[in-house]
């Protein structure tokens, strides 16, 4: 049994300050090669019986992310550098964990048991099921394999995200690709089954009503474009502006417009019920235009008595004026840049990405950045430098997760794509500054949990310790993730569903463990488990948080932040 040298901090809701026998110094400064931060003078909290030895106060921070397990050791040109190293040097210190999560789309390249296992071990945190492709039988196989992996793995967990097809407008089937040349006349018809050199079908009867002469029609996310010249009762006549090869079932967008189809189609409702029956963790809902759609889906899930979180995909022009209400109604958002860049000017997409990430962060909702992140790796074993920068920008802007689509669904190098995403995210995280932004509202009254998450983060970052939190609902782990502590959040839960859900949140490492009635026994078992897996080191300090919506071992009026020194 691990022995614990306890240094505790306690907060009582009635007093709103941490009781102590001594105050922290007015200003505590940590400096490293890449970051410098100062803590607030006259700190609102103090620590009882706390001593930080000289070694702990003066040593360089080895990394910002906690320890890296053996399976995560980095071996690529994007190796993680420590804070005291200079860019371009190869003095590697592999003791960091990636905090930004990776969503992988499962498809023909990765649907086997072997590949799902390899994706999980390489860095996948969430398995995405794209309901635009495949059938329920193939997706059920994937769900069963992910659940099998989760049941067998003690150190890792993979969440399952079902991504609805949504009201997509697509061209019909063609026997072979049709070559479109600049200046050529080409037509789209609502008649089914048409495929000639100059005309193909579309799958949407109101397509004629949704377009007007002068509109710009984009094919396959803008890979080809056609200008609408006129229309008849059953056809839209166009002239090719940017040519290419038109293949079967290509996505069609009208620049600046969204289709008048409902956000959740009949097929989507069938897929949603499939997700309920198979207990997925998240829905990613396509083409959400307003909050009403989110409320409708959540009401349905409540009626089914299931707890599945709703991630809204921001990808239509109509969603932009309603961003605040849509994200507020949801459990998180995805920046789906493909269709977003087709319906809106492409130069607006980076600004919208930053705006959506900021809004989600302010509302404490997870956010995923998706589409084209490593598109070239569908066919090539190495990424472009622009793609590497794209991942780094998403990480620096604060995304909880980055997503791979075709790269892992049907690409030639799915494992290499995941490894590149892992190493780039890890390297970028090592240079991020600490977050010392205080909560903007009055946390001392109605938001006790937020205050504790913020001050626990400050304490953990000051002492360079990981955070341990015990949670039944996931709420405190989510709050801690929001404040972006520099080290790992070890989130212990006795609920399998919560363990899987937390797999999406930045910095959180969810661990399933049954809680005993004795708090100290549970703490000791948790520390022993982390020591045995090499996630903690002998003599290391840890910050332990007891707070949140539902008390476990404490009275409802009492909250705790404790710093403990662990010995084997």
Automatic annotation (TrEMBL):
- State the compartments where it is located: Plastid, Chloroplast
Q: Which keywords annotate this record?
A: ATP-binding, Chloroplast, Glycolysis, Kinase, Magnesium, Metal-binding, Nucleotide-binding, Plastid, Potassium, Pyruvate, Transferase, Transit peptide
Return any one Pfam family short name.
Answer: PK_C
**So what EC number does this one have?**
2.7.1.40
Q: Which Gene3D superfamilies match?
A: Phosphoenolpyruvate-binding domains, PK beta-barrel domain-like, Pyruvate kinase, C-terminal domain
Q: Name one GO cellular component term.
A: chloroplast stroma
Which reactions does this protein catalyse? pyruvate + ATP = phosphoenolpyruvate + ADP + H(+)
Domain Pyruvate kinase barrel, which positions? 98-418
A Gene Ontology molecular function term of the record: ATP binding
The residue ranges of the Pyruvate kinase C-terminal domain are 466-546
Needed cofactors: Mg(2+); K(+)
Q: In which pathway does it act?
A: Carbohydrate degradation; glycolysis; pyruvate from D-glyceraldehyde 3-phosphate: step 5/5
Q: Which residues form a coiled coil?
A: none
List the InterPro entries hit by this protein, alphabetically. Pyr_Knase (IPR001697), Pyrv/PenolPyrv_kinase-like_dom (IPR015813), Pyrv_kinase-like_dom_sf (IPR040442), Pyrv_Knase-like_insert_dom_sf (IPR011037), Pyrv_Knase_AS (IPR018209), Pyrv_Knase_brl (IPR015793), Pyrv_Knase_C (IPR015795), Pyrv_Knase_C_sf (IPR036918)
**Key word Chloroplast present:** yes
The entry's family comment says: Belongs to the pyruvate kinase family.
What is the name attached to this protein's record? Pyruvate kinase
